[in-house]
Amino acid sequence: MGSSASTSQIHVVIVGAGVAGTNAAKALDSKARVTLIEPTDSHNHKIAALRAAVVPGWEKRIRLPLDGLLKNGKVIQAEVLSVDTGRVTLADHTVIQCDYVILAHGRGKLAFPCGKLMHSLNAAQLSIF
Ligand SMILES: Cc1cc2nc3c(=O)[nH]c(=O)nc-3n(C[C@H](O)[C@H](O)[C@H](O)COP(=O)(O)OP(=O)(O)OC[C@H]3O[C@@H](n4cnc5c(N)ncnc54)[C@H](O)[C@@H]3O)c2cc1C
């Protein structure tokens, strides 16, 4: 009981619900408190997109709703603006505190490692990264 009680307190925020983010979220759902953040309401199954162009029926498999993806964790429909140690800031400036962040935003607008925040840091602060 001790270990499951303590791991469930660990808060992991996952940025992006692509193939990397959704798989990470599912794998961690029973082991930690998971928050998955994705601007859209669904997982874009890109690999299905080309097949959908030639195989009837596959068009339903391109966008997979995120509702029900996680048994325990939470999905937030929002864009992440920046990531800093122990916290993630959404586009509406909501700050989410967490223990770990998994950056799974693919080639999204958020640049590695901390997106728009990078542009506001001075040279000394940038050297930390
Ligand atoms: C048409 C097509 C066909 C493909 N076919 C294949 C194939 O057959 N085999 C193969 O191996 N690969 C294929 N790929 C490549 C494969 O789809 C990518 O390698 C894979 O999707 C990368 O997954 P990912 O989770 O890293 O990123 P992505 O799938 O790009 O997911 C990133 C997610 O992060 C979200 N995001 C971005 N920025 C933010 C932000 N600031 N805040 C919150 N969320 C954010 C996005 O909305 C997105 O949902 C194909 C790609 C395309 C476009």
Short description:
The protein contains five helices and nine strands; from the N terminus they run αβαββαββββββαα. The protein has 129 residues and is an alpha/beta fold.
What does the model show?
The chain is of the alpha/beta class and 129 residues long. The protein has one domain: FAD/NAD(P)-binding domain (3-Layer(bba) Sandwich). The chain has helices at residues 2-7, 19-28, 46-52, 117-120, 123-126, and strands spanning 11-15, 33-38, 42-44, 63-65, 74-77, 80-84, 87-90, 95-97, 100-103. The strands form 3 sheets. It has a 4-stranded parallel β-sheet with strand order 5-2-1-9, covered by helices on one side. Strands 6-7-8 form a 3-stranded antiparallel β-sheet, with no helix packed on it. A hairpin with a 4-residue loop joins strand 7 and strand 8 (95-97). It is globular. The N and C termini lie far apart (37 Å). Residues 116-129 have low confidence and may be disordered. The site of flavin-adenine dinucleotide (FAD) has 25 residues, from helix 2, strand 2 and helix 3.
